[in-house]
From TrEMBL, chain A:
It comes from Astyanax mexicanus (Blind cave fish). This is AP-4 complex subunit mu-1. Component of the adaptor protein complex 4 (AP-4). Adaptor protein complexes are vesicle coat components involved both in vesicle formation and cargo selection. They control the vesicular transport of proteins in different trafficking pathways. AP-4 forms a non clathrin-associated coat on vesicles departing the trans-Golgi network (TGN) and may be involved in the targeting of proteins from the trans-Golgi network (TGN) to the endosomal-lysosomal system. Belongs to the adaptor complexes medium subunit family. It is a peripheral membrane protein. Residues 149-407 form the MHD domain.
From TrEMBL, chain B:
Residues 668-692 have a biased composition (Acidic residues). The lineage of its organism: Eukaryota, Metazoa, Chordata, Craniata, Vertebrata. This is AP-3 complex subunit beta. Residues 599-702 are annotated as: Disordered. SMART domains: AP3B1_C (SM01355).
Amino acid sequence: MVTALSGDQPPVVMSHKDLNFIHVRQGGLYWVASTKTDASPFTIIEFLNRLAALTKDYCGSLCEKSVRMNFALIYELLDEMVDYGYIQTTSTDILKNFIQTEAVTSKPFSLFDLSNVGLFGAETQQSKVAPSAAATRPIMSHRSEQGGKNEIFVDVVERISVVIGSNGVLMKADVEGEIRVKCYLPTCSEMRIGLNEEFSIGKSQLRGYGMAVRVDECSFHQAVKLDEFDTYRILKVCPSQGEQTLMQYQLSDELPCAPPFRLFPTVEKDYGNRLLIFLKLRCDLPPKSTALNVSVTVPVPKSSLSLSQELSSPDQTADLQLKNKAILWSIPRFPGGAQLSALFKVEVPGLSSASLLEVGPVSMSFELPKHTCTGLQIRFLRLSPTHPGLSQRWVRYVTHSDSYTIRI
Amino acid sequence: MGHDDLKEMLDSNKDSLKLEAMKRIVAMIARGKNASDLFPAVVKNVACKNIEVKKLVYVYLVRYAEEQQDLALLSISTFQRGLKDPNQLIRASALRVLSSIRVTIIVPIMMLAIKEAASDMSPYVRKTAAHAIPKLYSLDPEQKDQLIEVIEKLLADKTTLVAGSVVMAFEEVCPERIDLIHKNYRKLCNLLIDVEEWGQVVIINMLTRYARTQFLNPNINEGGEKAFYGSDDEDDDDEEKKAEAAALAKRKPYVMDPDHRLLLRNTKPLLQSRNAAVVMAVAQLYFHLAPKAEVGVIAKALVRLMRSHSEVQYVVLQNVATMTIKRRGMFEPYLKSFYIRSTDPTQIKILKLEVLTNLANETNISTILREFQTYIKSMDKDFVAATIQAIGRCATNIGEVRDTCLNGLVQLLSNRDELVVAESVVVIKKLLQMQPEQHSDIIKHMAKLTDNIQVPMARASILWLIGEYCEHVPKIAPDVLRKMAKSFTNEEDIVKLQILNLAAKLYLTNSKQTKLLTQYVLNLAKYDQNYDIRDRARFIRQLIVPTDKSGALSKYAKKLFLALKPAPVLESPFKDRDHFQLGSLSHLLNAKAGGYQELPDWPESAPDPSVRNVEVKDSVRAGGTVTLRGRAPGGQACGVFLSSDQSSGEEQKRNRKVVKERRSGSESESEEESESESSESESESEEESESDTDIKKKKKTIAPSSSVRMYELLHRITGEGLAVEYCFSRQPFSPDPHMVAVQIQFTNNTSSETKSLHIEDPKLQSGMRIKEFPEIGQDFLLPAGESVNVVMGIDFCDSTQAANFQLCTHTRKFFVSIQPPVGELMVPAFLTENEFKKEQGQLMGMNEISEKLNLGEKCQSDHAIVERVTAKANLSRVPCGSEKENRFAGKTVSSGSLVLVTVARKEGGGAQLTVNCEKMVIGTMLVKDILQALTQ
């Protein structure tokens, strides 16, 4: 039936006779809805996304194991959310009045978990920033645990996409960011989040004297109160339990600082059938910052056979992926201001000058913890009135690469 | 196989064992295992006290009731009992499960239950009733007429909670009964923004259809809308347009119906919604209903959606692709947003390409082509092929760049990647067909490619080109045929067919050189394995080789083979998709999905707009009301309790506006009509003022949740004709959540006007704060006999101290004070039973106050206790396992301290009242108040 699956990207909507299947992919799981009638596909996709988010909120993490352990809970959730195919509610606040079953969490014990799992599940060495295990706890579990901590996480997550031309000119740059809150406070008091005072929206507006933090567009979650936003750049919100996105913003076409990576490539034809690719990669982040999990993909001619490489340090790796016809160079850790170089010799039978054209464009992926490309910072995070009992507040920043392309 | 262990656990007395068993059974269902043999053991537990067990039993029951009808009937009585429960949640859940049991015998029971629930006091139960309607309909379509009655009743409901659900039921059961909507149209438009998001989607889609039947096409005077944006098929409908224009000249100028405008105005803010489904619903509404000049607003919102998950992007792009064909101009400013990223999945890339191609015009084509050039380098082959096709389409649509594109494509022919070359050949073939004379060198170049290129489709295309334009390459063509004859047997079928075609065409034009070659090829084809090729050979031979038997047709062979062929139209696969309603599943599939409702065409002349007029009754007088509309934090939970006067007040305003607009805007209408309308509205307002006071009384008695006690602030005698009353509306005060909302009603009993009502000189205890109502303006006059409502906020600092201040009019000042009853200093808090117990455990000792009491005669039942306690204090109920206890929870407004109240009934009318609160003063006073309420 699922013959339409082509490669790794099945079509979002599939139909078989009168039955239509709509799916989304989250947490490595397929969330599929089926419908016979003409329901709005947006509603279904949006609902599946919410369902995935709620499952994550209730079960702690989103993976096959947690779903398998919590069938009863998920059934109960679905039962409250959908009535005979009609969506009743997806609001955490309402649902928590109904849901009775408690989540079973899997707590695999391994040394790896203790030391090395970092922000957003990625493997980092910066994991001391925040207790990551806490952030993947089900929101409802504190009900039974007497010593449940009152914690609140505020994450500033940015995704950067950049295109750098072959002459080194920045051709396109976009940043999409969002402020996410994950809240474990049992009763919700008001929270105030102060952003940089010189934060400005749009091209005309300028605030403060120093470097303005500028974005093009900004949208807010409906629960955010903005009465102090115009003057003091303070977001006020009463967060409900679970995860929600308070603010989304975009910046297009211009970056306040240099793009994080610069590449200086040289591609040459060796005598014989060898292609020499010499790459110099510079990280333009401030010296205190570090990029993690950097990987560089260099497409090579179709007929490439083998690769020999010279890399500057042993923790880096590079290999030729014959399936994609590309060299994958990975650098686990790349401090700001540093420069790395690599020499790749590729064996290409029948090498001609036309083959040189098949090299590039280079694409990169990376993660920049504790760094935002727009410069957005959280000045303060206050809960008012001060919450009784210890409430712990965490602020985390991270920038991911969305698509980082350097043309050769 | 038996599940004896599970059965044993279900039969045990311990809830924990039952729960464990139910969890295992649900897990079995989830894995797709059959658990139906456990039905008798499970159904016994339907009346289990433990709510966790109970809910899982419900899940099981709904799944298997259809298979075990007889046994399922045993559970029905439990639900019937549940339908009468004082707790709204239990009533709703009983109805939900009862209506999900698909057993035809209980249809009459379900019908009765739905009817009763439809007039339930609680909007939550009414909402559940609306959900139950389509379930019953699918079980027994015979019930349609009765169900429509229920739908009609629920459509009139004024709460936002019900609106979405009943429209869903309407769409399912009787979408053709558009007449049911007339009277509710304006109300639905006005409620829309407060309805929960899933309901919004359904309502907007329904209203789109409604508007298409009731209003005139706003673009009617613009002529064919395509002309403006310059689309490719202008020529086709020129004549139509002329006819249309002639018709237009006779038509009177278009005036938009105010109701049409209302819909557009009220949906626009929803473009900001965080729910993609809502944004898309509004976008399609604007696309289908708005005047051309206003449609542009949706572009930005849709572009914003493209930053969402890739699945959402996919569906948005499908819709954008359709829109760009009709209204290209609207997305042009966002061209860059459709540029492709290396991380996009292929299907998104291809859709973006589609949009970019649709957006291409003379001004931006050079940018777009440059962008396309970089895409050709991509590693994703499907995408490269699609890019080449896109270049071809740009070239056909925009004459100026045809040569540039062609040259670019010819360069691609030297690409090392065969797929790229093949795709280019196919596209070049299509382009050349449009103007072959000028491009014989390109054809020559392509002829050379036959030696290298192996992709069958590309080889076939080249052969076709050479055959078709053999006059342009008279020397090369026979040579190509020679080579092809050599390799004929090894070619793919499509290539063989084109070799035959090439041979036939050459035979007709250049028989001297190619006669023998053609014979040879035809002979090879005669013995081919494929019957298509054998057929083709036989057919060609009869046509072109003259024999004595050959008929009259051979004379026309040249005309048949070398007729001028029309150039192919390279058009978007999204062309004409817009006959499906955008945003629908059918549009996405480009095929009608089950239950798709066609979007009707605009009517020729407008149906009577007066059908939407509503007689206004049963609402508090609210002319010119200054109501601060508090948006409840946390959304629907509080939305349930929003009393109806807000919406009806608004509606009334709206009605007035409509009347006004009609008066000014409908000059073209006959005067008679507008007169009758204005007199109608006058009579309405008379009726209102008469019944005004009655209604207030009625309200107090009907709904306990919305009944509010009015207190006097200023008597009309001391106020010299100005009477002021206030009440605690129990709605959150939106400017400051730590304040108690106080609704104040001014009534002018004098014979002259009162001006500039405001507050001065508040004398407050330390810490207390006042947020005044906005001064009702110097210009505002409170005419004689009228009244007005305002809302102010007071932070009482959780004390019952009075707030003193001066109330000023333009002539006088009055000293007044507002003293809150202790029960108004709190807001409901939603806790679960466990949370309640936990919190209570932390508020013992000094914080706990307990009193024994004897319940009053009328207050023995659960229902009465709940009613009295919630009337006295603004608390919410907490679910409770024990039948003898009632629990309530709230938080003080100012400091957010928890207030927990427990009423435990005992034998013989006695009871124990316990209040746990950190603030001892509040606790003590609350005990006193509740005690008094319960003993009366």
